[in-house]
Write a structure and sequence with these properties.
Layout (H helix, E strand, L loop, with lengths): L2 H33 L3 H31 L3 H5 L9 H13 L4
C-alpha cells in the first residue's frame, strides 16, 4: 500500500467514523433545541389562553343577558335554517351558562 492509498484510507475512515456521526448528532441537537418552547413562548401561550377564557366568559355573559331579554334571539339572528347553530353546541353552552360551569 503506497502513501496516496494510505492517506485516502485514513481520510475515508475519519470522515466515516468521526465526521458523519458528528454531523448527525449536531443536527439532532439543533432539532431538539428548536423544537422546545422558550420561556417567552410559554408566557405568551399562557396569556393567550387566559384571554381566550375571558372572551369565552364574556360571550357566555352576553348570551345569558340576551336570552333573558329575548329567548328567541338566536332564531331572529339566524333566520335561515341552514345557518342555525348546532343544537348540541347551543344546549351545551346554555347548560354551562346556567350552571356556572367553566371549561
Amino acid at each position: 500500500m503506497d502513501a496516496p492509498e494510505f492517506f485516502g484510507l485514513v481520510v475515508t475512515m475519519l470522515v466515516l467514523f468521526i465526521g458523519l456521526p458528528w454531523l448527525i448528532f449536531h443536527y439532532i441537537t439543533r432539532w431538539k433545541t428548536a423544537a422546545t418552547l422558550t420561556g417567552s413562548d410559554e408566557k405568551l401561550l399562557d396569556e393567550l389562553h387566559d384571554m381566550a377564557r375571558r372572551l369565552d366568559d364574556r360571550l357566555c355573559s352576553i348570551e345569558r343577558i340576551m336570552t333573558a331579554e329575548n329567548p328567541n334571539w338566536r332564531q331572529q339572528c339566524l333566520p335561515n335554517q341552514s345557518m342555525r347553530l348546532d343544537d348540541d353546541l347551543t344546549a351545551d353552552r346554555t347548560q354551562r351558562i346556567f350552571t356556572g360551569e367553566n371549561r
